[in-house]
Amino acid sequence: MSCPCDLYYDLRSSELNEQLTSWLRSMTDRNEYFVKLLRTKIERRARLANAVNLTSQNAVAETRLALVDNNERAAAASDRAAAELERFADELRKADDESVDVSTAALDAEKERLRAIISLRRTALEKAATDSKAAGDQLCQLQAINDRMKNNYYNSNK
């Protein structure tokens, strides 16, 4: 014959087992939801990083194109101005007037001054284009490092 205590202990043990099972189920669900939330957060950050990378690359490309375009336009405008000055100076020389010699010398001096300015501007534009290219290359290198770190993080959390 079994003791009423044994019956009580069996019943109580069964209740405790059910409670523990319920807690384990809840904890498993909570852990699963936490992992899903964490994965979503990481994926969102990765998408944001990709969007920032794309925007940065587009900005660098647009800046490079603008610099190249401005450089070409400035070079063409300066070449036109220099050619115009040379043509005008040649016309004045052909006039063979003594009073023109003074203005021809002034025009030649102005032409040389403009050429020096043009040369400085070209140098500045070329330097800006080089700096922009270097900044773009550095951005690409940093993005590659970021991608490697992101991949290492994903691979270590699998």
Map the helices and strands.
Elements (H helix, E strand, L loop, with lengths): L3 H92 L2 H59 L2
Helix pairs in contact: 1-2
Q: Determine the fraction of residues in helical runs and give it as a percent range.
A: over 70%
Number of helices: 2
- Would you list the SSEs in sequence order as H and E? HH
In terms of per-residue confidence, which ranges show pLDDT below 50 for 5 or more consecutive residues?
none
Instruction: Give the helix/strand class.
Output: mainly alpha
CA-CA gap between termini: 56 Å
Characterize the largest beta sheet: strand count, sense, and whether it forms a barrel: none
**Residue fraction in strands:** under 5%
Arithmetic mean of pLDDT: 81
| Number of DSSP E strands | 0
Cα gyration radius (Å): 39 Å
Number of domains: 1
CA-based shape: rod-shaped
